[in-house]
Amino acid sequence: MILSTEEIKRQLKLEEDDTSENTLLSALGAAAEARTSTFLNRRLYDKRESVPETDKDGLVVPDDLRLAMLMLVTHFYENRSAVSEVEMLDTPLAYKWIATPYRIYPQ
């Protein structure tokens, strides 16, 4: 997984030594990574990895895209159901603003 649980906890302002939600946080991080990969039509690689020569569209995740993924995790964490009693706005707008320049459109 590209986003570490510790990184996600810092984003959500959770106590680092509290492990009670680690399973959920890992699932949210994996979901944000999968959604981002799908949205971009690219396989994502951690900054400690390099893109294999066989993956012409692969992308080492830059810092701004990492931030977008953390923002998506925050959205998922704070909005755990599909409906709400309050009117919700398109929260992932900032996510799309950051991520779209890295998107590849299939031919």
From TrEMBL:
Gene3D superfamilies linked: Phage gp6-like head-tail connector protein
Superkingdom per UniProt: Bacteria
NCBIfam families in UniProt: put_DNA_pack
Protein known as: Head-tail connector protein
Organism: Citrobacter meridianamericanus
Classification lineage: Bacteria, Pseudomonadati, Pseudomonadota, Gammaproteobacteria, Enterobacterales
